[in-house]
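Subject: sequence -> structure tokens, single chain

Hey, anyone have a minute? Need the predicted structure for the following. Not urgent.
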Amino acid sequence: MTSREEIDEHIRSTEISIENEIELHSKLTSNTKGHIIRLLGVARRGTKEQSIAKSYVIYTEYAARGSLDSQILFHQNHDRDMPEIYMWLLILNLARACQEIESLGWCHPDIKVSPSPPRNRLVNNIGSH
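Reply:
Had a minute. Here:
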């Protein structure tokens, strides 16, 4: 059985992790060359008793084409292949975003193909962010 202290420690570590990710995104936003979606703001809602993950609202630049997952699902649902040139542009822009992150001395730990959230690869009109 989990003690109240263990639950409180888990909540604190989750909150610190979220705040660190917000801080890193903010730094990337100020140094980006256009391949990482801009962080516009953050709001905190609710109380500590509520889920930590649900108490933060992160505002980012509009991604006109949604997430990479939504693009893949769109093509699957319409029973058609994603154009090869579009796939290459997405891959190129994802690689450029990783280069931007690396140029600041960081490594993105969450690049993966996953059928479950979080869906953190966003696509605008010119490629991936």
